[in-house]
Specification:
Strand content: 15-25%
Oligomer: single chain
Distance between the termini: 8 Å
CATH class of the largest domain: Alpha Beta
Number of domains: 2
CATH architecture of the largest domain: 4-Layer Sandwich
CATH superfamily of the largest domain: Ribonuclease Z/Hydroxyacylglutathione hydrolase-like
CATH topology of the largest domain: Metallo-beta-lactamase, Chain A
Radius of gyration: 23 Å
């Protein structure tokens, strides 16, 4: 069980597939489960049999040297499943006026913005499904550039599928004709004759997120990107730890895990904690008679929902401003994931936004809460434009700006956020920072997942080499060994799990 680099070459793959429903419902008989010998010691069941019948290998295509442009392929026998096709937005933001929808995939690959998927030609199988885990751009942002290379359906939860559809519709360079297949958490899909894909519900900083599990005769492959362990979410169901424990008892051949916060001690708080923090901050400034502006991740529907509700509580009319704010919240409302007030305004086009700002200035800033894009200091986002004085909204001494988001730990974002806050302070704004909880597991969450799944092999992802170190230490403390059953790898490599 080793990993090794492989040469890059053009891609030629095909696909088929038929679809199933939920793995087991009330009153149904339990599905016959894969039987594998117990793995001695710490990990319980999950080791492959002494006479394996199916080759299993991974292609670690993107997201193994950075936070962004995630893409992993798993081959089980002749069947290949691709997990995620993401964008590294920081590689785009450092260039002025780059419009990715007009760019060729090879140019974006050369920029380091999307995965270099040419390694796929070394997987001797047919792609049966492309499976984005959730709707963040670092997981779906390259689908419009790469999916057309594969004769395979894109399979995702309803909210994610809708966001993928919008990505495809905005694409100007390639025609993406892949079928879009909706699958709910708890449902399954047949992958060829011997494998099965399952969606397990998880909680993250976007709604309708899942961890996909590929069940093979050699054990399960659990793709663990991205999640936090939230038992009291503001929207949606808690993480399905019961199902993860069941999968662990059945036998897990490999666990691929998001290491974003692996260097942070303790556990990640629930979104309900962030909601209470936000409520405390907003109630504390409810008597302020000037401007209050809030910003958060546009895709964080639970956080937007809390901002809208607390704005009403303190007597201000909320309004959502910015293209992505309109896109994500409008989509969530249309699909009935959230119930916003009927009079909530959502404006994405620049002229509509500026008209709204003029109305706010005319009717009094003290009557409104603009909820805007720009929490990372993106150059063209609403809050950045406000800081530069490029909108009709006039910031004054003492006006409050609430950042309900942390800076993504990447140099481009950190620099842009610093510049944005500096511009806002120069206009007299008071900054309320870090009203937030992360969407990623901290160390104790990682420990709980490893304890629940007891995987035979572990592959860290969603970080660079320095970011993997804390997760590697945790795994070694739990008995794993680098180069044997703990595989630290890079983009473009292969890991042979079962020969």
């Amino acid at each position: 069980m080793v990993w090794f680099a492989v040469p890059l070459a053009p891609v030629t793959v095909t696909a088929t597939g038929d679809f199933g429903r939920r793995r087991r419902g009330p009153g149904e008989q339990e599905r016959p489960q894969t039987t594998v010998p117990s793995f001695a010691g710490r990990r319980g069941p999950g080791a492959p049999s002494s006479d394996p019948t199916m080759e299993i290998e991974l292609a670690t295509i993107g997201g193994y040297e950075e936070v962004g442009r995630q893409m992993t392929a798993v081959r089980a026998g002749d069947d290949v499943v691709v997990f995620d096709m993401g964008l590294n937005l920081s590689k785009v933001l450092i260039h002025d006026n780059v419009e990715t929808e007009r760019m060729h995939s090879l140019d974006l690959i050369d920029m380091g913005a999307i995965p270099d998927d040419r390694v796929m030609s070394d997987l001797e199988g047919d792609v049966k499904a492309i499976v984005p885990t959730h709707g963040h751009l670092d997981h779906i942002g390259a689908i419009a550039k790469l999916a057309h290379r594969y004769d395979a359906p894109i399979v995702a939860t309803p909210f994610t599928i809708e966001l993928v559809k919008q990505q495809i519709q905005s694409e100007e360079k390639f025609g993406v004709q892949n079928d879009l297949v909706k699958m709910e958490a708890g449902e399954t899909m047949s992958i060829g004759d011997e494998n099965e894909l399952e969606f397990v519900n998880v909680t993250h900083s976007i709604i309708d997120a899942i961890n996909p599990v590929l069940h093979t005769p050699e054990g399960a492959i659990v793709y663990g990107l991205d999640k936090r362990m939230d038992h009291t979410p503001v929207i949606g169901d808690p993480i399905d730890m019961d199902r993860f424990r069941e999968i662990g008892r059945d036998g897990v051949l490999c666990y691929i895990e998001d290491c974003t916060n692996a260097n942070k001690k303790g556990r990640t708080p629930s979104e309900s904690v962030a909601r209470r923090h936000l409520k405390d901050v907003m109630y504390s400034i409810q008597d302020y008679d000037g401007g209050i502006v809030a910003t958060t991740f546009s895709s964080h529907i639970a956080r937007v929902k809390s901002l809208v509700e607390f704005a009403d509580d303190i007597g201000r009319q909320p309004v959502l401003l910015g293209r992505s704010m309109e896109k994500y919240s409008g989509t969530a409302e249309r699909l009935d994931f959230v119930d916003f007030p009927e009079d909530l305004g959502m404006y994405g086009h620049r002229k509509s936004v500026d008209r709204t700002f003029k109305r706010i200035m005319n009717e009094g800033k003290e009557n409104f809460l603009p909820i805007v894009t720009g929490h990372q200091g993106e150059p063209r986002a609403m809050l950045t434009r406000m800081g530069r004085g490029e909108t009709p909204y006039e910031l004054e001494d003492g006006d409050k700006v609430l950042f309900s988001a942390r800076v993504i730990p990447e140099p481009t974002n950190e620099g842009q956020r610093h510049q944005s806050e500096t511009l806002l302070r120069m206009q007299g704004a008071r900054i309320y920072d870090d009203i937030h909880v992360s969407g990623h597991l901290c160390q104790e969450g990682h420990y709980e997942m490893l304890d629940a799944l007891r995987p035979q092999n572990v592959v860290p992802a969603h970080q660079d080499m320095s970011g993997f170190s804390s997760y590697v230490n945790l795994c070694e403390d739990m008995g794993y060994t680098m180069g044997e059953d703990l595989h630290v790898t890079r983009n473009g490599n292969m890991i042979q799990l079962v020969e």
